[in-house]
Amino acid sequence: MSDGDIHELSLHALSAGLAARRFTPVDVTEAFLARIAALEPRVHAFVEVYDAEARLAAEAAHKAIQSGHGLGPLHGIPVALKDLVEFEGRITTAGSAIWRDRRSMFTATLAQRMIGAGMIVLGKTHTVEFAYGAWGTNEHMGTPHNPWDMAVARTPGGSSAGSAVAVAARMVPIAIGTDTGGSVRIPSSWCGLTGLKTTIGRISTHGVVPLSPTLDTPGPIGRCVEDCAILLALLQGGDPNDPLTYTLAPSAPLADMRRGIKGLRLASLPDTERAGVDAQVLAAYDASLAKLIALGAEIAVLPPGRSLSEAGDLVGKIISAESYVYHAGHIDRDDLPLDQAVRARIRAGAALSAKDYLDVLEDRKKAKAEFAARMAGFDAVLTPSTLTAAIPLDTVDQTKTPAISTRWVNYLDMCALSLPNGMTQEGLPTSLQIVCRGGDEALSLRIGWALEQATSWHRMAPGLD
Length: 465
Description:
Blueprint: H1 3-6, H2 11-19, H3 25-43, E1 46-49, H4 51-66, E2 78-82, H5 109-116, E3 120-125, H6 161-168, E4 175-179, H7 185-190, E5 194-197, E6 217-222, H8 225-235, E7 265-268, H9 271-274, H10 279-294, E8 298-301, H11 308-331, H12 340-347, H13 354-374, E9 380-384, H14 407-411, E10 415-423, E11 429-436, H15 441-453
């Protein structure tokens, strides 16, 4: 295989190729660095590329594998980190120009685990400032270009915009994002990728710059379900620096992934929740439901209850209140160059009283119980990941959010997988969201894998060559 083909391979295909000695970690790293060099000026996915260090790591991986000292199936495979993830000695801006010189003093737990498995960090990817925004825009650091339309600047999705653009453009096989209200799933939806929103406590947040400690969850953004399952298996587990990681039993995402979905009972959206969904997105959603039924699942309408968008509004209050506590020192300084849309979102937290904040947290407990009753007898809930395909940046209304389909999942502390399920007439990806109970990531991956194997949407790539 030529270096020119390597960047087209998924994480699990790269792993198989390395094991079979069809290519080396040096070949793999050089292929992706060449892709970055060719495309980065056009797509603006990376804040910084660690090319020299990545080459050294690749050479070391090659020698280790040759000498029988390989670290496992991920040794020599590149990855990118969202620029919220602390990496010792490196700049971590959290998407803010005021932190261009902020150097990390330690490495986040999730990055330590990837490096410990032999993965090679190629660089840091752009994020919405302080990760507070779902459109994917960044006023001062620049907005990544959604590679599915190089003629029109469209929303890449946020806040993990750079991670999604880098994976979609085949500049890296997989990347890390974070999801507080949809920030893994929305960019995955608009960039034609698979993204996993994990349950709180599944993956350590130690060393991830916080937006909302109550809601923040790291997760993988990849090209397919299997790649996300592989990275979940690596990143999960107890971390003494994050006590919440001891609240969940270990997940076995790969063990049951291929079991099929015959006999599973899945909930679809009631008519009241279908209103406002773009017609092409809705058509792709209905086609996915039909495919899942053909694969043996039973689908029935989710029983009535409070609207999903209502939960989303309350998520915004939690994020604003908690992010203001963390960022007040610079958000309240009008002389600093901050994204004005993000400044307004965080400043809203200053107006929220302690009583209002605690009332929302109490409502969250009630909402969890209410939704658990609605979901009784179902294994998962199916929704579109976003209400539309990616829209032109010049039509974005920053006072609104595209996270209508995603925020409620964070509010209820559930997990969810987003994966490609169609294309619009304009050639833009659509996406299905598979929502499962907290801790049931393996089930969401199992359902997603079954649908993925029966379709070919995940194999499609934007035309950049």
